[in-house]
Amino acid sequence: MPTHSSVYAVSGASVSSRAERSPGRPATEHDAPGAHSPFSLAIHGGAGALSPSRLNGQLEAAYRAGLAAALTAGYRLLVAGGSAVDAVTQAVVVLEDNPLFNAGRGAVFTSAGEVQLDAAVMNGLDRCAGAVAAVVGPRNPVLAARAVLELSDAVLLVGEGALSFCRAHGIALEDPRYFYTEQRWEALQRELHRRRHGGRDDRDDADRHGTVGAVARDVRGNLAAATSTGGITAKAPGRVGDTPVFGAGTWAENGTCAVSATGTGEVFIRLGAAHEIAARMRIGGQPLAQAAADVVAELQVAGGDGGLIAVDAAGAVVMPFNCQGMYRGQIGADGVPRAAIYREQLTVVNGA
Ligand code: ASP
What we know:
Helices cover 32% and strands 19% of the residues. It has 352 residues and is α+β, with helices and mostly antiparallel strands.
């Protein structure tokens, strides 16, 4: 039975007087600024980063502002004592609403020219989890996933059944036009043309895929993860990637870590990537940075490109990836959003 009483609401968060201090641990090169703070939030906007030649200053500023807006939205909840699961949900809502990212508005198209969305939310406190897959229409698929977590006996709902569930629980649905962006439509046309004419697949990562996600540790030490995606450009109708598959693209487990992944979904599923990181920590005693780096390297050997964000029980964040870039950001108790796209350090970005 569901263990939560109400669908996600941002109001009503109360400030906790029991803010925990993270145990001391030497900083590593993987630690983002703000680690070891009472709470921590990390986000990604997908491993489908535009190649540097296509990213002009204006576009780069727009991506960084989008990341900052999501970080700030999650931060507002965490600093008020809100839960990790609320913070990751809210951060992902903001990214889904931004047409630059491949999730919600701005998602890529299937080979049939439709937008089919996958999303997942997991609470590390009780390992309650909810996901939707191959759904057509929810404005914010992460809210549909959150409703499954809270209101359904199921963990994963797909297709038409998921839509009926959304209708029954007041999840906002949109007309296909809402999800249309010229950039994604043209990427689909180029890919369909390539397939018809048998050309080499030399697409930019940005034309192939992308995803959005968030992981957080709240002041009570609870972890959570949320991920949302349109999947892969020109995917077969009905194809589902790693995002809504718990243990593959999304995982949260208090005591080890919360993980949100992005990249070649099929490989993340076959390697059970997100759960593999938690298992290496829990059973093998590996620190998060090593477990995450090893799994990302193994993904690459298996033909999977992409990366992930993860936070451990102490609030330390890692963001390894094995491709050219990954839109990503982090915020801690200092309230300063930091973001990066390629293989550079996170730098301060103006909040929204
Ligand atoms: N992992 C997503 C999927 O396979 C795509 C991505 O993150 O680029 O659906």
